[in-house]
Design a protein that fits this description.
alpha/beta; 8 strands; globular
């Protein structure tokens, strides 16, 4: 059954982010933010010393990432590109995991023009194919690189209905399942790196404040064939919302596993803000020159700030299983804090990836 245009009493205007006004609201909707968060929005900087207008360069100023290796998915555009640029600026060796390697190489060249000392590799990764994820992980491990930082950044926003080659909702697989498998395949490398380097490993899932609108939770029975064979049932906006909820649940449950093992690796999720990037390409509504956008829509440098902060800043050392907004710890939804749902999401994701 398809989700109605009016879901749980909220119009598409609010849950679908289908106008510049809604884009702005997605970043600071009063009824979706706590009082402390609202105070920070109007007053400026939060407890971390940074605000929603801080840039990735500002939040990493003075941090030396020499000797660290990071993987950034979706690194050829938007906040993934800016995350890559800033991490290399701080001395981090970045492996760009991209679907289009030609685009990735052009980004690499542009970064090297600005920073000739940047250490960058470009490798192919299509999160919409579990075989591609496995190939990427295998190739990365064969190179013998350490792995300190895993930035699960790539994503799509409300694309038309499509199944992946694995017969799974392509949006769910791209935004969550591909990253879930990638993380699991590279976890032993991260553990080994953390032990040998005595440096904390960090995993960052780029989620969204949109996860708060996934009121129906995860629709486990509507994620893979044969239960989904056409678009008659499919609500692409809700598909996005539940995939972003899955990102937060993944970081929560992964934290539990890491703590049980006593491993010095953290896992957190972040909301980058409403950023004027290609992720909005399927809706075609974002007008970066509008008055609303000028005040409330972030540019890529501001959008990458929270990711870079959580990945690099010493203030975040030892913090795991949290959800960050504007470089500060924030409240996730009640469903995102549901330990039983997180465990169910974990087991479900394992079932979809172990047999593939």
């Amino acid at each position: 059954m398809a989700f109605p245009m009016n879901l749980m009493g909220l119009s598409y205007h609010y849950i679908g982010c289908v106008s510049a006004t809604t884009v702005a609201l997605f970043g600071f909707l009063p009824f979706r933010r706590s009082i402390p968060e609202l105070m920070r929005f109007f007053e400026g900087k939060g407890p971390s010393g940074f605000s929603q207008w801080s840039t990735a360069e500002e939040v990493t100023q003075g941090i030396d990432g020499t000797g660290l290796t990071a993987i950034v998915t979706g690194a050829s555009s938007g906040i993934g590109r800016e995350t890559t640029r800033v991490l290399t600026l701080r001395g981090v060796h970045v492996v760009m995991a991209v679907r289009n390697t030609d685009s990735g190489r052009k980004v690499k060249e542009a970064i090297l023009e600005e920073n000739p000392n940047a250490k960058i590799d470009v490798k192919e990764l299509d999160l919409g194919s579990l075989a591609s994820v496995r190939n990427f992980a295998s190739e990365f491990k064969s190179l013998g690189f350490p792995l300190n930082l895993l930035i699960n950044n790539a994503g799509v926003f409300a694309p038309p209905f499509m199944l992946s080659p694995d017969k799974i909702d392509l949006q769910f697989q791209t935004n969550h399942l591909g990253h879930f498998l990638l993380t699991n395949l590279l976890l032993e490398t991260m553990k080994s790196t953390a032990r040998q380097s005595h440096k904390e490993g960090r995993i960052v899932n780029v989620s969204s404040i949109a996860h708060r609108f996934a009121y129906c939770g995860i629709q486990f029975d509507r994620i893979m064939a044969p239960s989904i064979n056409d678009e008659s049932w499919y609500n692409r906006v809700y598909g996005y919302l539940q995939s972003k909820l899955a990102n937060v649940l993944h970081a929560k449950e992964l934290t539990k596993h890491l703590k049980e093992e006593g491993v010095e690796i953290t896992a957190n999720s972040v909301h980058p803000g409403c950023v004027n990037t290609k992720i909005m390409r399927y809706l075609g509504f974002l007008n970066g020159s509008s008055i609303i956008a000028a005040y409330f829509v972030k540019n890529a440098s501001q959008g990458a700030a929270t990711t870079c902060y959580v990945a690099m800043h010493p203030q975040v050392k030892g913090i795991s299983g949290e959800y960050f907004v504007d470089c500060n710890i924030a409240n996730s939804s009640s469903l995102a804090k549901d330990a039983e749902l997180a465990k169910k999401m974990w087991d479900f994701s394992l079932s979809l990836t172990d047999a593939k």
